[in-house]
Amino acid sequence: MFKLSKKLFTAILLVTVLMGSLNVQAATVNEDSKPLEHNTITTEKDLDKDFNYYDVVFENDAKELTYPVEVAKQGVLLITLQGTDPNFSSLTAQLYEDAGLTKKVGKAIYLNSGTEEKMGIAEVKKAGTYYIKLEFLRKYDYKEPLSFNLQLDLIPGGTREIKKDVTSFAYQDYDTSENLYKIVVNKTGLVALNIAFDKEEIQSARFTLLNSQKKAISEQVSVYTEKDKSGAYGNTLSQFYALTKGTYYVKVDVRGGLHTIKYTLSNVTDKSGASLSKAAAIKVGGSAVSGICTNADKKTKEDWYKFTLSKEKAIKVSIDSKVDGKLMAEVCDSKGKTVWYGSFYLYSGVQSKEVESSGKWSKGTYYIKVYKADEKSSGSYSIKVK
To answer: Distance between CA 353 and CA 226 in Å, rounded?
Structure first.
């Protein structure tokens, strides 16, 4: 069985626990064959399909073969070569844009004798017919026919819609174009975009939120994978947006090669009051209360909360947040004036902040205010007082 390339296969295992074997069908290539076709891998559901590969035969003294390749859409073509006979020195594959083989697409892929398989990439910026040239160097004076396996897998790119809670495959690296993802939000809530890579090492991505007219409505933010307690980098990163109902695009510039992308939408119940006089009550020692500052909120909108001490007491205010950009939080006294060291930012990503009293605070009512530090920020948070 000819499997997917190891790199792709490893990444697929990231998101598919029970995949089973792929049903592979072989097709022999000859001079009169129709254009070669690719497998299209868009979401994890595509893994249930039959994956095709081609058995390429070099007859007798043949040293090179060229075949048309029909590409269905923009994206990155993964070209995998696998040797099935040891009697060769090297096999080279190069994709071209034209039948005259003058405009290269991507870099050449080299499979040397003793190497099981080799995968390379070629970014195709539009659908159409391309051409793949295979150059072959035999070992010694071996004159018998030799065959190789060729597999073509397309990971769609460019502008594409991704569905909520559906894991999609994507490819992007230093020398490929950034991707633009359309997402449809059916209610106000917190959108979490999650990217997973096939390697546990430092990875990065840059995100920009666009409206339905593809105009930027957030600042570009860079996100990096983080180290765990053992000091090793993880293989996932996340970006958050608090959005109202509507259609959006997210521009993603990734530096990590093959990866998966998925977004979720979490409902956030906003318990806040609109002013100091309408502040929502928080019970000291009770459950956390939640709030949200959406992309549509003005910078002047403030979320107010209050808690009351029936006697002198040492307290701790804890705020957990998931933010794009930055929110501002202030802990205030009974007159709405910020207490000493009671003002702080909630920055992009996942953060936890605490304000702890120095000694005991006097009996009375205190307030907490949360608002956007700038118009383009958004996020959700929860507050607990104990």
So the answer is: 19
Phi, then psi, of 264 in degrees rounded to 5: -120, 160
Strands (E) in 256-315, as ranges, are 257-266, 280-281, 289-293, 302-309
Please name which of 295, 374, 297, 282 lies closest in space to residue 328, comparing C-alpha atoms. Answer: 374
Neighbouring CB atoms inside 10 A of 127's CB total 12
Closest by CA to 272, choosing from 367, 385, 347, is 367
CB distance 316 to 354 below 8 Å? yes
Burial class of residue 241 in the structure, from the number of CB atoms within 10 Å of its CB (0-12 exposed, 13-18 middle, 19+ buried): buried
pLDDT tens digits along 295-316? 999 999 999 999 999 999 999 9
Cβ-based neighbour number of residue 349 at 10 Å: 18
Which structural domains are found in the chain, ordered by start? Answer: 6-156 (2.60.120.380), 159-266 (2.60.120.380), 276-385 (2.60.120.380)
pTM of the model: 0.88
Q: How far is CA 138 from CA 7, 112, 113, 141, 266, in A?
A: 27, 11, 10, 7, 58
- List, for residues 114-130, the tens digit of each pLDDT value: 888 999 999 999 999 99
Task: Identify the H or E element spanning 13.
Answer: helix 6-15
Pairwise CA distance, residues 42 & 37, whole Å:
16
Tokens of 296: 């549509």
CA distance 178 to 167: 18
Angle at 190 between CA 341 and CA 263, to 5 degrees: 130
